Structure formats: structure tokens, C-alpha cells
Amino acid sequence: MVAFKWKAVTVPGKRITDLQVSKYKELRGKHGQEAAAAKTGISVASARRLESAVVLPSQRPPRHWRTRADPLAEVWDAEVVPMSWFELAALRGAEAGGVRTVA
Question: Which residues contact 33 (CB under 8 A, 6 or more apart)?
Fold first, then answer.
């Protein structure tokens, strides 16, 4: 027989709502950290961060800095933007009576 340890199903990158935070803190008084996190649909790591959080997620100021380097910064202006202008001009030519696509 194989035993599986079930974890809370969460979507990475999905923001935690104020309702989840208040529900977690309410359940945390009755249950352990893992159980309260699972019942609110957040990860245990996020629950640990919420333990020391003072403000709700909606009350935090927005981030204005980059969290990682832009991988396309070197080629964006030199190659990608000119390609998009060329494709846009080709599409406009097609709309103006040039080659038309048949659906």
C-alpha cells in the first residue's frame, strides 16, 4: 500500500485575498498552521508569512521595481519592435485591398 501526503492545491502566482487572510487568522485560533492554510486554500509557506503580517494584502503599497532582469531588454528595441511594425504595415496593406485571407 502506498501512502500519499496531500498538500493544499494552490495556483502559483495567484494573489492572496483579504478574505483568505481574515479566514486564515480566524481558523488559526482553532487549528494548526497547516490545517488552517489548507482550509483557506493557501500554501503553508504563505501561511508562515501571514503569521507576521500586520496589514492586509490590499493595504500594502504597490511594487514599483523589477523583481528580475528583463531577458529581452537587449533585443527588444533593435529587433522585436521593427518586426512588429513591419507586420502591422503588411496587415494594413492587406486590409486596404491587397492580399486578403479567406476564413
Answer: 44, 47, 48, 51
